[in-house]
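Fig. S4 source data, part A: sequence.
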Amino acid sequence: MLKEQNVKLGICPIGWTNDDMPELGSANTFEQCVSEMALAGYTGTEVGNKYPRDTKQLRKALELRNMEIASAWFSAFLTTEPYEKTEAAFLEHRDFLYEMGAEVIVVSEQGQSIQKENVPLFEAKPIFTEEEWTALADGLNRLGKRAREKDMDIVFHHHMGTGVQTTAEVNRLMEMTDEKLVSLLYDTGHLYLSGEDPVEVLKTHLPRIKHVHLKDVREDVARQVKVERSTFLEGVRKGMFTVPGNGSIDFLPIFDTLASSEYRGWLLVEAEQDPALANPLEYALIARNYIREKAGV
């Protein structure tokens, strides 16, 4: 069982309103989102597209609900654009999160990503060249140094439809980057959906994992997405992702491995679904009860 003093439990707002498809959950307000998060028993959240960017306003809204900001997604384009362009946007993002008290910055390489493209998810993922791998690793090391200026860490988010999706690609990135500057965000759902063994990746990279996304996958829907050659966003609409305890992933060995390693940090429930089909509060409670039962926190 995990120790309560070691971990914080949060949930991502993407179950209430989707950043990539704003029409999903368009009627759900920021206040409803964070209120229902708190009602379901969570104490943290990442940042969604409806969250106030004024730090005083955001902090007050969260403090009223005993909530805090765990991190927020940052899109890097280190393989396709000059480093300086990514760094300028990163510094603004870093300073916002620093003001909100976050300790880690979620970074995903979106150069050549097919997440928003009209191509089959399981057939069209980008494959980086040697030059792109070098640009990515060097750029992440440089961003890591800028994060350390604020005593923060970057946590790299491996992701479906990007150049860092598979176990081999995660391994390569970790080998090519400085462990003191680049940490890893561990996402159960993206590994499972890619056909990887989430437990293997967890055990391999435990010392560098400083942020965790707990995402489940509906195996039957994932098969449908593959057979029908659906896009990533079509897969989301069809419900290929769900919350822990409602899909096909066995989280027990994941929780056991995190517990035995004395993992310290955030556990964030994340499941991009259509809130019209999967009531956000209902699914937040499903996940919260499951984690309490299976992980002891």
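Fig. S4 source data, part B ends here. The chain has one domain: 7-295.
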